[in-house]
Amino acid sequence: MNTQFQKSLLNATGAKAIKSQQLIQSLWSGYGKILRCQLEGGNIPSVVVKVVQIPEGGKHPRGWNTDIGHQRKLRSYQVEKHWYTVYAGDCSSKCRIPECLGIDSKDDEVLMILEDLNTAGFPLRKSFVNWSEIAVCLQWLANFHAQFMQRPPAGLWPTGTYWHLATRPDELQVLDDTLLKSAAEAIDKKLSQCTYKTLVHGDAKLANFCFSGDGQKVAAVDFQYVGGGCGMKDVAYFLGSCMSEQDCEKRESEALSIYFAALREALPDASVNASEVEKEWREMYPVAIADFHRFLKGWSPGHWKINSYSERLSRQVAERLLGL
User: Who contacts 137 (Cβ-Cβ below 8 Å, separation ≥6)?
Assistant: First the structure.
């Protein structure tokens, strides 16, 4: 961190000094880092800071190194900054996120000072989850979507998720699945014309959930791609991030039932008709799978998430929307 950011950190936390800085991870494509800072002399023992720094001559790990990709990343950090400034305070304990303690910027660099979820009761990161832990994450998503149902995404991505068609022309151009390529705009249009929209997390993979010690509570991080859209985008993406092809197919109905039960409970009675939301969004679930599948096949054709289940659903959606 530069000197200005170190001073901002101390001012935001009331600490006297930064005792140590531990690298948690580098940001995608070398756009900065996430650090855990141990503090001295205040009431907050540690914080997590996200330091965004523009790389010089960096190479994308999968070869995409275009100005479109660069501008998308720059925009994503501005969106996250706006999220924590304007929206984050509206999240309840049922869709827990880290408290933002302060934000600063200097030239092209951005500093976000966040609550350390490890010390807040969410110390676990999981690579594998059991069914009850999957259910907890689905309940988090349902409460998040209910909280922001029908709220315009002012200052965020108009359409959330990092794979949104309009921001991924390179991947569409190289996509060699002609059926999916032909249906890409129809898939995007179907999702964007939903009657019921919310704010989607936009990158709701398992790695962005932090678990309590017993695995029965979660908090979520990383809001670079939060924006408007159908909640099924988050649900389809999350399930694909932590379940096998066989389980995605076998337990699809069960997973959606858990999500929609939590959504009905969380939605205020007078604001929207929960049954109508469920009816529309259940129909959108395979469309959301097809939307991500379209991106993935263009971005990384050999990716492990490409499987016969998502291939079959995507083909069915594409044929239906194209009237084949």
Answer: 129, 204, 206, 209, 218, 238, 242
Pair type for strands 109-115 and 46-52: antiparallel
Residue 193: strand, helix, or coil = coil
Q: Select the CATH number that applies to the domain covering 131-322 from these four: 3.90.1200.10, 3.30.70.3450, 3.40.50.300, 3.40.430.10.
A: 3.90.1200.10
The model's pLDDT over 260-274, given as tens digits with 9 standing for 90+, comes to: 999 999 997 767 899
Q: How far apart are CA 6 and CA 104, in angstroms?
A: 10
Report the CATH superfamily, name and number, of domain 3-115.
Phosphorylase Kinase; domain 1 (3.30.200.20)
Report the interhelical angle of 308-322 vs 274-299 (nearest 10°).
110
DSSP letter string, 141-153? HHHHHHHTTT---
What residues have CB less than 8 Å from 82, skipping those under 6 apart?
A: 155, 156
Helix (H, G, I), strand (E, B) or coil at 303: coil
CA 14/CA 102 separation, integer angstroms: 12
Residue (of 184, 189, 225, 190) closest to 205 by Cα position: 225
Which positions ≥6 away from 107 have C-beta within 8 Å? none
The CA R_g of the chain, rounded to the nearest whole Å, is: 20
Identify any residues that bridge with 20 across adjacent strands, giving them in sequence order: 38
Q: What is the pTM (predicted TM-score) of this model?
A: 0.93
| Residue the block writes with tokens 């998720």 | 161
pLDDT digits (tens, 9 = 90+) for 115-165: 999 999 999 999 999 999 999 999 999 999 999 999 999 999 999 999 999
CB 122 within 8 A of CB 211: yes
CA distance 269 to 273: 7
Q: Where does the pLDDT of residue 58 fall: very low under 50, low under 70, confident under 90, or very high at 90 and above?
A: very low
